[in-house]
Design a protein that fits this description.
Chain lengths: 356, 149
């Protein structure tokens, strides 16, 4: 059973539904990422879990028991904010000690705990350092140490790496993952960055307009996005309006085999990373290469088929990637490459899928 | 008062020693500030011509970068504005549960008719502050005086 859970949370601001019935749980020691574009309600939800805002409806529960009457300072949840993560007028020690001092812990206990955290976050010897003399990465580690110092039963991180450059973000993400796993810290990680969420979390909760769009392990979500929204959010952009009839999906640029029983309006997702160049089976697409961009590990081709554009990604080290202007044939296996969503935007079980 | 969104507000003196603490309910959280609601819980008192009564509503805005905080005071019985009480203080520090600030003695009291009163300048002059802190505090007072003019 989940140790911390939210149940049917609703919150409305000036008639706009910021959260419209959000339910999910986090298991002990688990890292869950709350992922969504800005404005999807994730920060409001974090405030409600922290006890900084009250929901209009619904409940936050700890081990099944409502926290409705537990004020923020008694929930023993840690918070790490993006923007005012650190207190610039305090040194490293005083920043980390803040929560313990405010809770009136004894000086001995504070000293011991701060030392533990300095060691854990690789900041040994930094205790007396002024915050202004630290690098961006060091500051983030102090912020993490401070939020961990009171041994929170839930740690919530709100876009903690948002303001850092890419290289530093990746490095810190690795360190963060290591620390959270090592301490078995139950964590809710709020981000708009899917790479961050997928790299860090055991499970990801994708939010869209105040609702949960999909919950699952990163690999599962990546393999089986539940809706066109999730697919698009994950960067899959070969999504096409289509019509299903008698086992065939008709698009403006050709026919595709339909998975299972589906009739009427659908959205077809064609995965860009599962094509083979040339003929390797009966299912083929023919078009002209109208764009070609090198993206490090992959090379992306833009293919134009009857005025429709489709993207196809190939490993960069693969030889013979076609050039702009070439007419090419791509083969695909329907079970691997195609996914269909019905008019309600629900995923239709695919050929190869073995969902119960 | 709905206690579910309450945090602990801790006022410290210039040296960081705790002066008092109380519960406040979070009204708004933004990147640069936190607005809380708290209720006056001491004996009724006449403060430089402004009545403060037990149960009066304080809407307190704390800033994470500015060297002051602003309390808007409203009468318990009819929510009528009594005035504003502004503390010159170090920027507030907030970790999601506790919010603390160091009070630097200087205060600005503003009456509903716009009249302003600077309080405790002598005490401020006697505080062992650094040149930089003193400068920030004086700049903050000037900013507040301008804002309420």
């Amino acid at each position: 059973m989940a140790i911390i859970s939210v149940h049917n949370i609703h919150k409305t601001f000036e008639k706009t539904c910021a959260l419209c019935g959000v339910t999910f749980g986090i298991n002990a020691g688990e890292i869950v990422a709350l992922l969504g574009p800005s404005g999807c309600g994730k920060s409001t939800l974090l405030d409600i879990i922290a006890g900084l805002q009250a929901p209009d409806q619904g409940e936050v529960r700890w081990q099944g028991k409502s926290l409705g009457n537990t004020p923020a300072h008694q929930r023993n949840f840690g918070l790490m904010f993006q923007n005012y993560a650190l207190f610039p007028h305090k040194n490293v020690f005083s920043n980390i000690a803040f929560g313990l001092q405010m809770a009136k812990a004894t000086p001995d206990k504070i000293q011991t705990r701060v030392n533990e955290l300095l060691a854990l976050t690789g900041l040994d010897g930094y205790a007396r350092r002024n915050i202004a003399t630290l690098s961006g990465g060091e500051q983030q580690r102090v912020a993490l140490a401070r939020s961990l110092a009171p041994t929170p039963r839930l740690l919530m991180l709100d876009e903690p790496l948002g303001s850092l450059d890419r290289t530093l973000r990746e490095q810190l993400l690795g360190e963060l993952k290591h620390i959270l796993r090592k301490t078995r810290q139950t964590t809710l990680y709020v981000t708009h960055d899917q790479e961050e969420a997928f790299a860090l979390a055991n499970r990801v909760v994708i939010m869209q307009k105040g609702q949960v769009a999909q919950i699952g392990e990163p690999e599962t979500i990546y393999r089986q996005p539940d809706s066109p929204f999730v697919a698009r959010f994950l960067g899959f952009d070969n999504l096409y309006a289509a019509r299903a009839r008698g086992g065939v999906i008709q698009t403006e640029f050709g026919k595709f085999p339909a998975p299972g029983q589906i009739e009427g309006k659908v959205t077809l997702l064609i995965r860009s990373d599962r094509f083979e160049i040339g003929i390797s089976g009966p299912h083929q697409l023919r078009g002209r290469v109208t764009g070609r961009s090198f993206r490090g590990s992959v090379c992306r081709l833009e293919l134009t088929i009857h005025e429709t554009t489709l993207h196809a990604d190939f490993p960069s080290q693969q030889g013979n990637i076609p050039l702009i202007g070439e007419n090419i044939i791509l083969s695909y296996a329907p079970g691997e490459s195609l996914q269909v969503f019905d008019d309600e935007h629900n995923a239709i079980d695919n050929h190869h899928q073995t969902r119960p | 008062m709905n206690i579910t969104q309450s945090i602990i507000i801790i006022k410290q003196d210039h040296s960081g020693a705790e002066v008092w603490r109380y519960d406040g309910k979070v009204i708004t959280r933004a990147e640069d500030r936190l607005v809380v609601e708290a209720f006056f819980d001491r004996e009724d008192m006449l403060f430089h011509g402004m009545w403060l009564r037990r149960g009066d509503r304080f809407i307190e805005t704390y800033y994470f970068e500015r060297w002051y905080n602003i309390f808007e005071i409203r009468a318990r019985e009819n929510d009528q504005l009594r005035g504003w009480y502004c503390n010159i203080a170090s920027p507030a520090e907030f970790d999601g549960r506790y919010m603390s600030y160091r009070d630097l003695a200087l205060d600005l009291l503003v009456f509903p008719d716009g009249r302003q009163l600077v309080l405790d300048e002598d005490e401020f002059d006697d505080l062992p502050l650094t040149q930089a802190q003193r400068h920030k505090a004086q700049r903050a007072l000037l900013e507040l005086q301008t804002r309420f003019r």
